[in-house]
Structure formats: structure tokens, C-alpha cells
Design a protein that fits this description.
mainly alpha, elongated
Length: 111
Amino acid sequence: MTTNHDTVRSDRWARTLEELDHEIGRLAMLCRVPILESGVIERVLHGDRLVCGADNPVAFAKLRDLLMMHFAVHAKWAAEVGEPEVAAIERYVIERLRKSLPELGGSWPPA
């Protein structure tokens, strides 16, 4: 029964994280921020709007806030279930985002 409970909890967390990260992806596209490229998340977290290809201060602020929320959720879940499980959920979510929003990584703007 514990395994079923753990699976349900992991699935719920994956859905929650996917919804959060999908909104992050949508905002990144509005700001034309290649969010999945190396070092870009750190720049957004530090408030570096030069990483944007389009000037949208409101969307950028929300993007930054949601990224901070993502990392807060990650820390909470890691404390509850351990870093390896949370990392596995994040890898799954990122792979799904790469497929559904290919504009998030690679060269910018997309060809």
C-alpha cells in the first residue's frame, strides 16, 4: 500500500511541477528567454533582464517569481522524499517541456 501511495504522491507532484514549469515556459517565450540554456535560469533569478529577447517587465517579474517558487517547492519535496526522487520528477518534467515547448532551448529565436 505504501508503494501505491508513493506513486500517487509522485504523480501528483509531477503534475503540479509540470503545471508550474509550463507557465514558466510560457512566460519565457513571452520574454524570448531561452530558459533551458545553460546559465539562463541563474540570470533570471538575479533579475538580469538583458537575457530577454523582448522587453516585457511584467512577464519577466512573474517568470522570476515562478522560478523562485519552483526552487522552493523543490527544496520542500527534497526534504520530504529525498533529492533523487525530486530530481527524477524534474528530469521527467523538463523532457516533457522540451517536447511540448521546443522554443525554450537551443538557439533563439527558433528557426
